[in-house]
């Protein structure tokens, strides 16, 4: 019952028309981000992050969160219409969405995708409503040793699930940890790795790093590779009318079990630090294929192959807020950017968030209920508009976003040094992409590195330098054991993959 009382408090915060407007704006922008290939929620949030500096906390966070889960909705449009996913979590939707479009069922596929996204996202928010508070209460018992163990577990989880392999993820992580030590010592106040520069005394700011690695580098890579999506104006598969985007009752009832399985599974995977919507969609699709009586039809236009991953990616988007809000731990690059947004508006996510700022956290959760309804309407009523925008935006979008990156980074501190830092991180981002290094571990390490160090130093002070005492605390031991298990599994998996590649490369005798 207490959850309902808090939720009522959250909806009271939404009675402000401006907050509702920001929720709508976030939903619309998120859908556009999902529709436009190559941008993605991480890049979009990185570009818009400077806009929240000095703004009202609730309205800023409601807008940014709307962009995040709105991108999960919008990604299905180009996935189905053009076989081009707008963002990574929509890759699986192309498996059956595009074959359905080629059969003349693009409208039905988009309709079931929108409904699945709505159900999966709403289901995830309901679970967040009832799980968030108990988890936050449990986390209130944490002290510095437990916080250090959790931060360590976060880094290990990112290493174990990193898309570029264990070694590459580890290199990015350690580079990020090294950069997080630049500036004044968190305990003594002494300068470290500043090389005499006054601009580095306050450390390397999160904003230039994320805008450079996710925003500007992505745009420059798009321009360099001349990546454009051509949409034929008279293609019959691109004629999406409003009345053609709703599935028949038979199709919907056929997909209900898949939607529910995808929603629950997506929330569970999304709540795991280091996982994310992309992993959730692949697992959901594989599960549907295994339980189906007609697995041979998947990949050829099975509507359940669209419903399950779309429910999963939106459920995962809601699930990602569990560790972010309750523990202050981002589970992906996008939620790491959201963590930075929380800090920029003066809100510290973590165990005390639900008691320190209940109006903010419950206002945000309530906005997700309203935002999902808005997105259902937007993604069914405005599909023709999004296709039209896709036709005209290919040349102008990169220039606009690149300009916003530079102006936004400069405007936060009115610092040219921040712009230079952003350009350096842009080069690093391009280098990472060329060598297939995942940028997320480095970004998460920059964001959480100082917190990891502070918790470690507090723990040493707490136990007078005897770190071994932490192993007398059961919760810390359990988290360390889990971290060690993940680390060993990741190392073994990486070794086996390396060994298999060497055997494949060995010439036959």
General description of the model:
With 509 residues, the protein is mostly helical. The chain has one domain (2-492). The chain contains 21 helices and 2 strands. The protein has helices at 2-13, 17-35, 40-48, 57-82, 93-102, 106-139, 144-161, 166-180, 206-225, 249-270, 277-291, 304-319, 321-327, 333-344, 353-356, 358-381, 383-392, 397-413, 416-434, 440-462, 474-505, and strands at 183-184, 191-192. It has a two-stranded antiparallel ribbon. Helix 6 packs parallel to helix 10 (249-270) and helix 6 packs parallel to helix 13. The longest helix has 34 residues, at 106-139. It is globular. The protein starts with a helix and ends with a helix. The mean pLDDT is 76.
In short:
This protein is 72% helix and 1% strand.
């Amino acid at each position: 019952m207490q959850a309902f009382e808090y939720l009522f408090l959250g909806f009271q915060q939404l009675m402000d028309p401006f907050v509702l407007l920001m929720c709508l704006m976030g939903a619309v922008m998120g859908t556009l981000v999902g529709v436009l290939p190559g941008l993605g929620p991480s890049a979009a949030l990185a570009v818009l992050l400077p806009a929240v500096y000095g703004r009202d906390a609730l309205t800023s966070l409601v807008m940014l969160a709307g962009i995040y889960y709105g991108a999960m909705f919008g990604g299905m449009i180009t996935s189905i219409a053009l076989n081009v996913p707008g963002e990574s979590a929509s890759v699986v939707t192309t498996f059956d969405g595009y074959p359905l479009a080629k059969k003349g069922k693009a409208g039905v596929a988009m309709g079931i995708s929108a409904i699945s996204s709505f159900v999966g996202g709403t289901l995830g928010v309901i679970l967040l409503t009832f799980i968030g508070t108990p988890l936050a209460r449990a986390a209130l018992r944490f002290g510095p040793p437990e916080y250090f163990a959790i931060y360590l577990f976060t880094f290990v989880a990112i290493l174990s699930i990193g898309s570029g392999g264990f070694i590459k993820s580890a290199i990015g992580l350690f580079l990020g940890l090294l950069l997080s030590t630049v500036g004044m010592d968190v305990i003594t106040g002494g300068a470290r790795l500043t090389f005499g520069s006054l601009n580095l005394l306050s450390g390397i700011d999160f904003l230039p790093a994320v805008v450079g690695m996710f925003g500007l580098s992505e745009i420059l890579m798009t321009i360099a590779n001349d990546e454009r999506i051509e949409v034929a104006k008279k293609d019959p598969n691109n004629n999406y009318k409003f009345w053609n985007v709703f599935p028949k009752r038979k199709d919907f009832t056929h997909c209900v079990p898949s939607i529910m399985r995808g929603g629950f599974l997506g929330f569970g995977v999304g709540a795991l630090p280091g996982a994310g919507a992309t992993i959730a969609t692949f697992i959901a699709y594989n599960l549907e294929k295994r339980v189906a009586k007609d697995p041979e039809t998947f990949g050829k236009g099975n509507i359940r192959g669209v419903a399950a991953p779309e429910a999963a990616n939106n459920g995962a988007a809601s699930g990602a807020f569990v560790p972010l809000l309750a523990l202050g731990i981002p589970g992906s690059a996008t939620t790491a950017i959201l963590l930075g947004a929380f800090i920029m508006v003066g809100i510290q996510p973590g165990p005390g968030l639900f008691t320190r700022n209940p109006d903010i956290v419950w206002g945000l959760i309530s906005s997700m209920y309203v935002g999902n309804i808005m997105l259902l309407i937007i993604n069914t009523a405005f599909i023709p508009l999004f296709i039209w925008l896709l036709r005209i935006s290919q040349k102008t979008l990169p220039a606009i976003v690149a300009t916003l990156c530079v102006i936004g980074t400069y405007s936060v501190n009115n610092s040219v040094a921040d712009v230079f830092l952003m350009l350096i991180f842009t080069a690093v981002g391009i280098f990472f992409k060329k060598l297939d290094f995942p940028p997320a571990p480095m970004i998460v390490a920059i964001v959480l590195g100082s917190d990891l160090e502070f918790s470690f130093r507090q723990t040493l002070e707490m136990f007078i330098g005897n770190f071994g005492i932490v192993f007398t605390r059961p919760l810390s031991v359990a988290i360390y054991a889990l971290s060690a298990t993940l680390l060993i599994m990741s190392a073994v998996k990486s070794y086996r993959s390396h060994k298999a590649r060497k055997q494949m490369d060995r010439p036959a005798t």
